[in-house]
Amino acid sequence: MTIEEQLHEALAASVSLAVERDDLRATVEKLTVGAADELTAAKADIAAKDARLGELTVAVDGLSAEVVALKAALAAFEAEKVTASKEAAKIAASVGVSPVQMSPADNAKAEPEAVDHVAAFLALPVGSKERGEYFVAHKAAIVRGIF
User: Mean pLDDT over all residues of the chain?
Assistant: First the structure.
């Protein structure tokens, strides 16, 4: 190989390496710029989430204070609560009647016999006219008995 051929081959290798270097440099710059953009976007997202977290923390703290105030108010209401039975006992005592004393009229009333309307309804044949009429007549008691 002559010196000119060697020089020509060295120049070709040098140009090839320069082209490869330029391609690698462009690729690295694209990756660097892309990574920098992604990093900037991630930082902005984190800052937004931190701000929202701060807002939510303030809101939760406000709600916690409100819960404490509501619990205190509920305790105060419970302490002041007067039941109907206590009031009735006071009224009865003020007129001279013992709160546990029964009037003679209470003894005269006979307690109605308790009927299990659900069992009576279920005992009737399915699809019969009587079952439909029984349900219409005692709908409230049947539904209350089921639930």
Answer: 85
**Model pTM score:** 0.35
| Alpha carbon distance 107, 100 (integer Å) | 14
29-65 tens-digit pLDDT? 888 887 888 888 999 999 999 999 999 999 999 999 8
Domain count, the chain: 1
13, 97, 115 from 20: Cα distances, Å: 10, 111, 98
The reply to whether 145 falls in a domain is: yes
106 assigned to some structural domain:
no
DSSP 26-54: HHHHHHHHHHHHHHHHHHHHHHHHHHHHH
Cα–Cα distance list, 134 to 127, 139, 145 (Å):
12, 8, 14
- Residue 115 CA to residue 137 CA, distance in Å, equals 13
* Residue 128 located in a structural domain: yes
